[in-house]
Amino acid sequence: MAPSQMRHLYFLTVLFLLLFSFAFSQTVIDQRNQTIDERIVLESIARRWKIQIRDSPRSPCELSNEENPWFGCGCQNTWCKIEVLNVSGMNITGGIPLELFELRSLKILNLSHNILNGSIPREVANLKSLTHLILEANNLSGHIPPEIGNLTELQYLSLSANRFSGDLPRELGKLAVLEELYIDSNELTGTLPLEPNMTKLTTLWAFDNNFTGPLPEVIGNFVSLLDLRIFGTSFKGPIPSNFSALENLRILRLGELENGDSSLLFLRNITKLSFLSLRNCQIVGPIPVFFEHFTNLTFLDMSFNKLNDTVPVFLKNLTSLRHMFLGNNNLTGNFPLQIITENLTTLNPIGTSMDMKDTSESSDSFEYIILPKSEFLHKQYFSLYVVIYHVYLCMSKHLLPYQYSCVELQFVFI
Q1: What pLDDT was estimated at residue 133?
Q2: Where is the signal peptide (predicted)?
């Protein structure tokens, strides 16, 4: 290679290295400035909320109420970005500041248990890296913005216990990796715009809202569900038959379904349940034999339905059961003493035609046994009378006949 060519190559190499070095240093400066800008934004928000936010020396995964408020950063070399902001239970008032949505690397945002008002700004769409958005227990209102559907990395969304109203946005169905959804205790209307692809859902709380229409059949696609709670709404029955696919459920609470009789057959394969409440769901027919396999049940409420026939003896197999509510049904016959196990502490057969005259013989394990008022006239052991919303329970365990020990119970019915 000629000397002139060597000099030319050397010059180009040096020029390339200088340009690369300048570009790299400029990138580092930009990244540092970006981090400084984020902290300035955070400090501005903290001044508005009149709180002090400190950096956490630990992993953002270690969110704790004992370390509140705090933020956590994700760092690569000298480049740090704010990824976690936890400001829970600090009595913060006012609206959600727009500056918050400049923290575009946020993965976890927890503003729960404050007194925030106003609506969720549409700028929430800027937080595309969010995996956890926790706004529960505030005073937020208005419609939930459709831009929330842009948060496609969301795994946990809690909007519980606010005053959100209107229909849920259809864009909610875009949250395909969502695992936990809490929209209970609001003023939401319409239906649940969920999509069949939301199969990662493990928890769905939608109770205490103004939802209408049929109970959504799409829920039967969410086979990973562990906890499903929909009651205190105006959804209509019947319970979709495809709910039988929800075999992983541990907690099922449905209630106040209007119209449309349902049977219990959809429960046949959902045998892992520990908590089952189907209160006021227009359930018809007898208690099916497969209930004997629900050996993990600790709580059973099927009150205010149309159950008929007798209480089956095979319920004695439910040895973990602590609370059983069967009141206000069409059940008849003698109540089988065999099902009263040592773990059963609460029993409510009010509003049935069952004969309970021998129940007191197996009552030693009971904390609460709730019997019809008529039993007071000829029974020495238990009596019940109701005054307004207070329930008085009188027992004569280990006492002489007609010497009653009474306690006042409130909120007996769940």
Answers
A1: 98
A2: 1-25
